[in-house]
Amino acid sequence: MKKIFLTAALLVAVAASAQYGYRDSNRIGITVGINQFDLSTSNFSTKPGTGWNAGLSIRGNFYNDFDMVYAMQFSENNFSVPTINAALQKEDVKYKLPSAQISLMLSYKIIENHLSVEIGPMIQVNDKFKIDEDTNKTNTIVGTSLEAQDITKISKFNFYPAVGITAGVRHFRANIQYQYGVTNILGNLNDDGLGVNFKGHAGILSGNLIIYL
C-alpha cells in the first residue's frame, strides 16, 4: 500500500507542476471530511458504511469563470455484508478499503470565492478489502456459498466520474461530492475460479471541509 500512496503523490506533483507558471493564482487546500461508501452488486447484499477523507488540493485559474482543481486524497471506505456465522446466527462482516484518489476537476465559479460547481474524473488506487478483525473471515455470505474472505481481492485501479458543489468564503469552504465507479470493482474476483460472474460498482458520497492557504 505504501507503493500505491507514493505513486499517487507523484501523479499529483506532476499535475501541480503543469500550472507552475500560474503559481500566483494557485491556492493550496487542506481537506478533511467523511464519506459514505456503497457497493452496488447483484452477487450479494451490502450495507453502506461511513469512513474518512484527508488530502491536499491545488485550485488555480483556468479560463474566465472556470478554475481547475487538482487533488490527492487518502480515504478509508467502509461497508458491511450480512453473513451467517458458525453458530448459524446472522452477523454483519465489516470491510475496510484504504485508498488514494487522484482527481482533476473543472470548477465553474457561480459566485467568485463563495460558490462553485465541479465535474471531472477521479482515479482510485487501492489494495484489497480488509475484513474487520472482530469478525470471522469464514462466515458464509447470506444467499451464497461464499465465505467472507472470498470477496476481498478487488480491482486495484478504479475510475469514478465525480460531481460536486463547493461553498464558503475565500479561505474556508465546504464541499459535497458524489463519485460513481464505472469500472467493475469486483472484476478481479472473476479470476479466482469461484464459479460466480462478479460485477459491482461503488458509489461514494463525501462531505469535506477545505482550508485554503
Percent of residues in beta strands? over 45%
**SSE pattern, N- to C-terminal:** HEEEEEEEEEE
- What's the number of helices? 1
Specify the overall morphology.
Answer: elongated
The percent range for helix content is under 10%
What ranges have pLDDT less than 50 throughout 5 or more consecutive residues? 4-24
Radius of gyration: 19 Å
In quaternary terms, these chains amount to single chain
Q: Total number of β-strand segments? A: 10
Topology:
Layout: H1 2-17, E1 27-41, E2 47-63, E3 66-84, E4 90-111, E5 115-126, E6 130-131, E7 140-141, E8 157-169, E9 172-180, E10 200-212
Antiparallel strand pairs: 1-2, 1-10, 2-3, 3-4, 3-7, 4-5, 4-6, 5-8, 8-9, 9-10
Structure in words:
With 213 residues, the protein is mainly β. It has 1 helix and 10 strands. The chain has one domain: Beta Barrel (Porin), CATH 2.40.160. It has one helix spanning 2-17; strands at residues 27-41, 47-63, 66-84, 90-111, 115-126, 130-131, 140-141, 157-169, 172-180, 200-212. It has an 8-stranded antiparallel barrel with strand order 1-2-3-4-5-8-9-10. Strand 3 (66-84) and strand 4 (90-111) form a beta hairpin.
